[in-house]
Design goal:
Elements lengths: L1 H25 L7 E3 L14 E3 L7 H37 L5 H35 L3
Antiparallel strand pairs: 1-2
């Protein structure tokens, strides 16, 4: 029962964190008119100056804004996972050095380092996600 309540609480807090900015932007018509491209997407359909309006007849701003959001999210996922992985490697190394030959501690240290390696692999995969999204939507 406790785990269900905790997961429901986490889900609701994430929902509120996403929904509140969307509701706040819904009142501002200028914010919904377009987006600001902050990443180098590499598409000819995106405007070079970074400001993309949805009613543009020259540029495909929906695609540019989607890819910009994917680039931004995957960048922050990469940074977060690499930071956590670095801390896990340091923790694993510290646990391994201070284990004193205790098999339980060395196993725990090895698991920390294995989990950190998995985190690094997932972080590197997150850098490939924008290219996969561009390939799937046909914007290559």
């Amino acid at each position: 029962m406790n785990k269900k309540f905790l997961s429901l609480l986490v889900f609701l807090s994430l929902f509120v964190a996403v929904a509140v900015p969307m509701v706040a932007l819904a009142d501002d018509a200028s914010a919904l008119a377009g987006c600001q491209i902050t990443n180098t997407i590499g598409l000819s359909q995106c405007p070079p100056n970074g400001s993309c309006l949805y009613n543009s007849t020259v540029y495909s701003c929906g695609m540019c804004c989607l890819l910009n959001a994917v680039y931004t999210v995957t960048f922050w996922v990469f940074i977060g996972l690499m930071a956590i992985s670095a801390l896990m490697i340091i923790l694993g190394a510290f646990t391994f050095v201070t284990s004193g030959g205790n098999p339980d501690k060395t196993t725990q240290a090895r698991n920390y380092i294995i989990f950190a390696a998995i985190g690094i692999a997932v972080a590197l995969f997150s850098r490939a996600v924008p290219s996969l999204v561009k390939l799937m939507v046909g914007a290559v």
